[in-house]
Design goal:
The protein is α+β, with helices and mostly antiparallel strands and 206 residues long. It has helices at residues 36-57, 62-65, 76-96, 115-138, 163-187, 197-201, and strands spanning 2-5, 8-11, 146-152, 155-161. It has a four-stranded antiparallel beta sheet. A hairpin with a 2-residue loop joins strand 1 (2-5) and strand 2. Helix 1 (36-57) runs parallel beside helix 5 and helix 3 (76-96) packs antiparallel against helix 5. The longest helix has 25 residues, at 163-187. The termini are far apart.
């Protein structure tokens, strides 16, 4: 049964692991154990690792926060807002199943506010992300594939994904850019390490 709501098509009763079109099987949702409850646990780890990164970032002078590097988005002051805005985008899709209104991003495009402003905005966003995951679980929609079609540059961008898929992208996107931030910090003599999920979640030492 298909229910159309604007540009969003909800495919009800179709498990995310058996879609009716070519579509990679999402890792989240591929096993009954891996549901929204596990995503909350994983997001808790992600936020904790982010907190340790933020501890290091708070020690920087604003000039270092805006220092140019010859890779990635070139500045910490550009990378952090990009990461935050991406999480906002993904959380919106997880909860609503639609492309968000880009004018409502936490950080305006091309804006590079201070680290303190980014950290404050991300603290708010983290709670929003948790609520989005919980909301999807409560609605029984964690593995429901949704389709959005967005006109961009004369073409149509088609996104077919479940909240589980979108959460996996949220996770991988932050880890990808987190590594770039760690590299930038390292060149300035600030070392952040041992942020692996295993180290922070289930390995102990005697």
């Amino acid at each position: 049964m298909h229910e159309k709501k604007g540009y969003v098509r909800y495919i009800t009763g179709v498990p995310a692991t058996r879609p009716p079109w070519p579509h990679p099987s999402p890792i989240w949702g591929a096993h009954p154990k891996h549901g929204a409850k596990d995503a909350i646990q994983t997001y808790t780890y992600l936020a904790a690792a982010r907190g340790r990164l933020f501890d290091a970032l708070r020690t920087l002078a604003d000039s270092d926060y805006r220092r140019e590097f010859p890779f990635a988005l070139r500045r910490l002051s550009a990378t952090l807002p990009h990461m935050l805005n991406a999480e906002w985008n993904y959380a919106w899709r997880i909860e609503r199943g639609e492309r968000p209104d880009q004018s409502r991003k936490p950080i305006p495009p091309d804006s590079e506010p201070s680290f303190a402003e980014v950290e404050s905005a991300w603290r708010v966003q983290a709670e929003t992300t948790r609520r989005a995951i919980e909301s999807s679980r409560a609605a029984g929609a964690w593995e429901t594939i949704r389709e959005t079609r967005t006109p961009i540059g004369g073409r149509i961008m088609i996104v077919r994904a479940s909240p589980a898929d979108i959460f996996m992208q949220l996770l991988c996107h932050e880890v990808h850019h987190r590594a770039q931030v760690m590299a930038m910090l390292k060149t300035m003599g600030v070392t952040v390490q041992d942020l692996d999920y295993s180290t922070m979640s289930y390995i102990t030492w005697e």
